[in-house]
Write the structure tokens for this entry.
Amino acid sequence: MRDLFDASQDELWDAAAAARYDTPGSGMFAPEVLGPTIDTLARLAGDGAALEFAVGTGRVGIPLSERGVPVTGVELSRPMIARLREKVGEQTLPVVHGDMATTRVPGEFTLVYLVFNTIANLLTQATQVECFRNAARHLRPGGRFVIELWVPELQALPPGRAATVSAVTEGYLGLDSYDVLRQRVVSHHVRFGDGPEARIGRTPHRYIWPAELDLMGQLAGFELESRSADWDGVEFTAESRSHVSVYRLA
């Protein structure tokens, strides 16, 4: 059986994944989720332009551009780009097809951002460091790189167990199985309706501790400016399950 970690991002984020990605008005598309996200990013962009790594179907990039911030995207999945193009044209939100760790986009930006845990889609420490360096290449001095990322829930793993329950909502069950030796996690997504059938999807990730993320930033010339537990600015603590980290280019 082929190792899931050998699959390409194009394979993982194919046309089927793009078709079911958007959930307008709910989940990560809910106003209470998107509102604070856009408010924070617009404030950090200031009077400059923003670059979104892994822009996807435009969940964040489109409303941010509607706030008056010029947004450019980088995206590896052509089906995700096609989905975005059903909503807005190239003039509204230009997108460059490529890898967020290496692809260079023309122009200079005050803000580069990477949301919803997506840096963990880069499956080695080396490529994650390169992502920071690529962000630095695009920023003017003093520019910011913003990352939204979950905190590995290893404290929830009892001895002898390899998985945690990440989410239980109506029609959805999420499980994360950990390989603590190689710092890997596979997210198992179980979606179901009223009947006995369920659809299962899996995505591989390399998890990153906050302190490790800070070191990656230092290697690329960044310093940590702030870290909160969410987009509303709630204080980050040892119990926080995620964080929004703002790095400033020195």
Notes: Residues 31-45 form the longest helix (15 residues).
